[in-house]
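Let's sit down with a protein and look at its sequence and fold side by side. Go ahead whenever you are ready, and we will take it from there.
>
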Amino acid sequence: MDNVAIVVNDLDAAVAFFTELGMELEGKGEIEGPFADQTVGLDGVRTDIAMMRTPDGHSKLELTKYHAPVAIGAEPPQPPPNTVGLHRVMFAVDDIHDSIARLRPHGAELLGEVANYENVYLLCYLRGPSGIIVGLAEQTG
């Protein structure tokens, strides 16, 4: 897999959030023109993107802000984790409680609570920018 793309309302806020998670901004750019229209199947595409890279360089996340056509919000606006489609993006972290504390100023909200899975992982889901569900996993055993 090359990358996962997520449409966001506020590109700068999303970049700040994923930077706090340890991802690195690889670059930003504007995307528009016939190739963009043909690729996504929409007319008049004009977007700004930010490509984020994991520190090991093996995974990428493309954050996309649509200017035209305007992005369409999900229904309901904050879909629950069992909604059909992209479920969540999971990140391995060294300290789940520290990660949550650092992400809260960026708008992160826990969906449930931190759970202990068989003394092997601490796990949680939180909602990030533009309603994205992000999973955090800390290996404990």
